Structures are given as structure tokens and as C-alpha cells.
Amino acid sequence: MGGYVKDVILSEQALEQAKEYYKNSDHWYPVWQYYNLFHLDRLDVTTEDYELEFLKELHNYSRKSHIVGCYFLRYPPDSFTRLHEDFDSELTIVTLIDSKDLVGGECIILSEYESPGPRPSHYACARHNDKEKDKHAPYGLNIVPDIVNLEDGQSMIYGPDLTHGVSKVYQGERIVLITWFKNGERKRKHET
User: Fold this and answer.
1) Which domains, ranges and CATH numbers included, belong to the chain?
2) CB-CB contact of 69 with 38 (8 Å)
3) pLDDT tens digit string along 153-173?
4) How far is CA 120 from the centre of its chain?
């Protein structure tokens, strides 16, 4: 799956349960530079809580055998996520749970550059021949920065090859639930 899908997965009841879960938890911890996450707060969902309705609905939607990981992220001003791929999962679902007075904090992806057709003769075109990757047109490469707008309660679903991130938050707050899924055997916590 190279692209992404936007969908409403959670029922209203499950969305409310997810909101209550993050609002009632005192296990948030600050993240300075945690892999691809910068200057935000994270709340890990324990495996004992994987039977909650909001996770059951996401899991059923995924059609994968198990949840690899699950956590909430709270993006305050100056937080962001750098562009990256999720190689540790077969399917990722990002659900926007809540946003308050949000300026910035958009989902960013790199999508495929497709040829718009033959180049008109009056358009300039230049590529450098000294670099292997610049010898040919970049058609079919994921080089187009794009924004995916999500409304509260909407999810973005994608595979491990989608380059994605979150733009810097300038104002307000953004709460998302990240769930990773795979098929196959689940590893025990002590296995790597």
C-alpha cells in the first residue's frame, strides 16, 4: 500500500471512550527527541487495555492479526514529527482524537510524482547528468509534499512505504492515537 486512505473508523461511543482514556491518564511523559517525535507528550496504551472498544474497532478495521503498538500523542506549540516511514508495522492507523484552536500540525506526506503529459516545448527542463538519480525524470518517485487534512474522529490509514510526518504546531493542541498492526506471531516484550 503506497498511498493512504482517510476514513471514519471509530463509532461516536468509541471516540468518546478514547477521549476519556487520554484525559483520565496521569501516565503522559514528555518527549524531547524520541525517534521521529519532537517536543510533545506521549501516552502508551498498555496491552491490558487492548480490549477497550476504541482499540477493538481499529483492530477489526485493520484485518491484521495483532496490534504491534498503540499510543496517544499530544502536540503542543513547537512540536512536530519529522518525515519518516513506519518499517515496524504492516499497517498504521493515525486517528485525530481532538484538536483545539489548532494552527499548524497538519499531516504531511510525500506522494508520487506522475507525469502531467508531454512537456510543452516552451517549458524549461533541466537535470544534472553528474548524479545518477538526476539523469532521468523523477516520475513515479515520492517527491511531492502534500497535506492530509483530518477532522476530529477521522483516521488516516497507510502502509510502511508512505513517507509522512506532522508540520510544526504554532497554536493550540492536537491529540492523535497511533496504532500499528501486523500479521504473524506477536513477540514478547523481552524479544527484539
Assistant:
1) 4-110+145-182 (2.60.120.620)
2) no
3) 999 999 999 999 999 999 999
4) 37
